[in-house]
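note to self: dont lose this again. the chain is below, predicted strucutre after it. 144 aa total, dont forget to put it in the shared folder this time
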Amino acid sequence: MKRLLSLAFACATLAATTGCAVNRATATLMPDADLTKVKSVYVVKAPQDGRGIDELIKKDLAKRGYQVEGGAEQTPPYKSDAVVTYIDKWMWDITMYMIELTITVRDPANFPLATGNSLHTSLTRKSPEEMVDEVLTNIQNAKK
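---
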């Protein structure tokens, strides 16, 4: 009986902790996309973004050598080589943290060229800067 209780406790502990340690980082490049031709980028600020994720994306892209502008969504075509949009999702676990970030790179007419996603739950959480860097690095390294 004692052994059965120990086994049940171990299983319950394992089940309770494994669901919180999830992470995923992916990127997809459209077959006809050539991101090496992109020199200038316009980052569209998401209307609900109150945490400055657009500024983090702009800073990271500038660090990578792109000419970066940003602001509100405009009517296509944009005057840059590419347009970046994003969706950030936040979760509460003692503190607020970004659980998921999706970044989409589009051509000036707003057609998707590449998409990257990063998901980190509470135990594998990263800072917003780290998640932006992870997604943009994965997009940059994506294979056709």
